[in-house]
Amino acid sequence: MSDSPVPAWSGLSTTSVDSTSGRLQMVEFKLSDYQWQHRTVLIFAPSKRIPAYQQQVQMWQADRANVNERDLKLVEVLGTGESRVDGKFLSAASVERLRQQFGVPVEEFAVILIGKDGTEKQRSQTPVDLAVLFRTIDVMPMRQQEMRSRQ
């Protein structure tokens, strides 16, 4: 694990790093730090053992090219176990803030798409097929502009 600071553009700030004791590197996560740079998919689950969580994460990992093309970031918000974003573990305060902000109790599963503008675009209580998620994104005006500029 590195002791190097997290770059300011990452949307994360380090709250504790202790490489000598082997403790996890915890970060404060603020959704607003990702605004205008990334679309965010929040996966809320009681734990990693929930089949819906496992199914959603498998779909995400199986289609990395399309995920990256749409500037998507995955934030895993778990009731038990380590919540994370970009391979970094979220602080308990960040997890609680996200649960309160989106009204998702610890015992529930939810998938929420947040647009680059920072607003909620889609919410589901079941795993979301990525083809459906991509269609939702691809009709957004900002995504249409991105696709035109890449041609």
Fold and architecture overview:
This protein has 151 residues and is α+β, with helices and mostly antiparallel strands. The chain is 31% helix and 28% strand. The protein contains 5 helices and 8 strands; from the N terminus they run E-E-E-H-H-E-E-E-H-E-E-H-H. Strands 1-2-6-5-4-3-7-8 form an 8-stranded mixed β-sheet. A hairpin with a 5-residue loop joins strand 7 (110-114) and strand 8. The longest helix is centred in the middle third of the chain and has 12 residues, at 51-62. The chain starts with 11 loop residues before the first strand and ends with a helix. The model is unreliable at 1-22 (pLDDT under 50).
Strand adjacency order, main sheet: 1-2-6-5-4-3-7-8
Give the termini distance in whole angstroms. 39 Å
**Helical content band:** 25-40%
Using only CA atoms, what is the Rg?
16 Å
Query: What would the principal axes of the Cα set say about the shape?
Result: globular
Tally of strands:
8
